[in-house]
Amino acid sequence: MDQRLANAWRMTVNEKKFIETALLSDLRVDGRRPFDYRRITIKFGSKDGSSEVQLGETHVMGYVTSQLVQPYRDRPNEGTLSIFTEFSPMADPTFEAGRPGESAIELGRVIDRGLRESRAVDMESLCVIAGKSVWAVRVDIHILDNGGNLIDAANIAALAALLTFRRPECTLGGENSQDVIVHDPEVREPLPLTIHHLPVAVTFAFFGEGNIMVIDPTHKEEAVMGGRMTATLNSNGDICAVQKGGGEGVISSVVMQCLRIASIKAADITSKIKNAVDAYDTERALRKVKRHPSSVAQKVSVPDVIMKESQLDEFIRQKAQMVTEEPGVESMGTESLSCKRDANSIGRAFTGGPSNWDPYSKSISMTSVRAQTSTGPMAIKREHEAMDIQKPIESNPDGRTIPDASGSSIVDGSGVGQQSNTPKSLKDAVKVKSKKKTKESSTAM
Question: Family, per the entry (predicted)?
Answer without folding.
Answer: Belongs to the RNase PH family.
